[in-house]
Design brief:
The chain is of the alpha/beta class. Helix content is about 40%, strand content about 15%.
C-alpha cells in the first residue's frame, strides 16, 4: 500500500473520517487524500514523496509561497522568546495598526484565532449594537461553522449536506437558532430589497463574501453591492464584509478596496496570519466600543494575538506591501487562467475561468456562474475526472468543484507552464 493509503486508514481510527476538516477527505472527488510532509514555494510533497504544484496554498494564506525564508525567520525569532503569554504584546499593536492602515474602514479591531471566531463574534457584536436578532446571509456563502450561519452554506457543506431546503445545513443546529437567519440568493437585488421591505426594522446585519470563494469563485454584480450598502444604511443594519478569504488576497486593501464599498465591520483571516492560526474582526469605533471590556458584548480567547502568529502575519503583510507584488500576482493568475482556457478550447471542452488577484475559479460550464444555483449545475463528473488527471500529473487542485483556487507570488512563469502542460494531459482523458 502507498503511504497515503496507510496513513488514511490509520487516521480514520482516531479522527472522524480521517481528516480534521471535511473537504480534505476527497469525498466529492473520490480517492485517497494526500498526506503532506513538507512544502516550499509553490510546491508540496506527500507521504509517498510525490511532488505537487499547490493550487490551494493552505486555502489562501500562503500568498508569499510556502516556507518563505523571511516569514520562517520571523517565526523562529518569535518562538525563541516564548509561544504564548496570555497577556498583551507590542506585536499585537503593530499588527492592528498595520491592518487599520491597509483597510481604512477598520478603525479598531479585535484579534481571534480563526475565521469562524471572527464571523461569529462580528455577528454577536452587530446584534448587540443594533438590539436586533435577524441576520441575512446568501446562498452558497460560507462564514465558518457557527450555528446561525449553517444555512445553505458553501464550502464543504455543499458536498456533505442537503442544502436544498431553507433549513440547517448541519445536524446539531437547532431550528430555533436558524430561524433568526434569512437566506437570500447571491446577486439577487430584488430579493434583498423585498427582505428589507418586510423585515427591515428587525435586521441586525447583512453578512456576505464580497467575492464568493466557497461555492467556487463568484463575483458580485455592482448593482447587488450597491443595494446591499444602501439598504443596510437606510435601515440601520450593520454591513459585515467577510474577507477572511479575500482580505489581502485579491488586493492589498481587500475586496472592498476594489469595489469602493465601506462596510461597517470586516472579518479577516488566512493571509493576515501568514499560515499561522490568526484572524480578526474590526470596523467602526462606535460599534467596536460595544465589546467587552468597554461594552456588554462578550468575546475572549486565550490564544488571541498569539505572538508567534503575530510575527508571521506582520512579516507577510510587509512582503505583500512591496511595490509590484499584487500586479505580479494578478498577472500570473490571469496567465494561468488564459493557459487553462486555451487548452480546454483545443480539446473542445466547455470550460469557463475567472480570477481576481491571487484567487481563481475553474468551471466546467459554458460561462462563469453568478449564483449558487448556477454553480451546482456545472459538470461535476467532468471536474472529478479533471481533478484526478491533474493530481496524477502533479498538480493539486481543491478536491471540490465548490472551492476557489489560489496562487502565490512563487508561481512564476515556469510553474505556470508546468500547470498548463499538466492541464493538456488531464484534458486528454476527459
Amino acid at each position: 500500500m502507498a503511504q497515503n493509503e496507510i496513513l488514511f486508514e490509520r487516521a480514520q481510527k482516531t479522527i472522524p473520517g480521517g481528516v480534521n476538516s471535511p473537504v480534505r477527505a476527497f469525498r466529492q472527488v473520490g480517492g485517497t487524500p494526500r498526506f503532506i510532509q513538507k512544502a516550499l514555494g509553490p510546491y508540496f510533497w506527500d507521504a509517498d514523496g510525490k511532488k505537487y504544484i499547490d493550487l490551494i496554498m493552505s486555502w489562501g494564506p500562503m500568498i508569499a509561497g510556502h516556507a518563505h525564508p523571511e516569514v520562517v525567520e520571523a517565526v523562529q525569532k518569535a518562538a525563541a522568546t516564548g509561544f504564548s503569554y496570555g497577556a498583551p504584546t507590542l506585536g499585537e499593536i503593530e499588527l492592528a495598526e498595520r491592518i487599520c492602515e491597509l483597510v481604512p474602514s477598520i478603525e479598531q479591531l479585535r484579534m481571534v484565532s480563526s475565521g469562524t471566531e471572527a464571523t461569529m463574534s462580528a455577528l454577536r457584536l452587530a446584534r448587540g449594537f443594533t438590539g436586533r436578532d435577524l441576520i441575512i446571509k446568501f446562498e452558497g456563502c460560507y462564514h465558518g461553522h457557527a450555528d446561525s450561519l449553517l444555512v445553505k452554506a458553501g464550502s464543504g457543506l455543499l458536498t456533505f449536506a442537503d442544502s436544498t431546503q431553507n433549513a440547517p445545513s448541519s445536524s446539531g443546529v437547532p431550528q430555533d437558532v436558524v430561524k433568526h437567519t434569512l437566506v437570500l440568493p447571491y446577486n439577487d437585488s430584488p430579493a434583498l430589497q423585498e427582505a428589507f421591505r418586510r423585515h427591515g426594522d428587525a435586521i441586525a446585519a447583512v453578512i456576505l463574501e464580497p467575492i464568493a470563494g466557497n461555492m467556487n469563485l463568484i463575483r458580485p454584480a455592482t448593482e447587488f453591492l450597491t443595494a446591499v450598502r444602501n439598504l443596510t444604511q437606510q435601515y440601520g443594519s450593520v454591513l459585515i464584509y467577510d474577507e477572511v478569504m479575500t482580505g489581502f488576497r485579491v488586493a492589498l486593501g481587500g475586496a472592498q478596496s476594489l469595489q469602493g464599498i465601506t462596510p461597517d465591520l470586516t472579518c479577516l483571516g488566512k493571509v493576515m496570519g501568514g499560515g499561522m492560526p490568526m484572524a480578526a474582526f474590526g470596523g467602526k469605533k462606535d460599534i467596536m466600543a460595544k465589546l467587552a471590556p468597554l461594552g456588554n458584548v462578550y468575546q475572549a480567547g486565550t490564544l488571541s494575538g498569539n505572538p508567534v502568529a503575530v510575527a508571521a502575519g506582520l512579516k507577510t503583510l510587509e512582503i505583500i506591501s512591496r511595490a509590484g507584488f499584487f500586479d505580479c500576482l494578478s498577472t500570473q493568475t490571469t496567465k494561468l487562467m488564459t493557459g487553462i482556457k486555451a487548452v480546454a478550447q483545443k480539446h473542445a471542452i466547455p470550460l469557463a475561468v475567472d480570477s481576481v488577484g491571487g484567487m481563481f475559479g475553474i468551471y466546467f460550464a459554458s460561462e462563469v456562474p453568478t449564483s449558487y444555483t448556477a454553480v451546482t449545475q456545472t459538470n461535476l463528473d467532468q471536474f472529478k475526472q479533471f481533478f484526478h488527471g491533474m493530481l496524477n500529473a502533479g498538480v493539486y487542485l481543491a478536491p471540490s468543484a465548490y472551492e476557489a483556487g489560489f496562487t502565490s507570488i512563487a508561481h512564476d512563469n515556469a510553474v505556470i507552464d508546468e500547470i498548463v502542460v499538466a492541464t493538456d494531459k488531464a484534458m486528454q482523458t476527459l
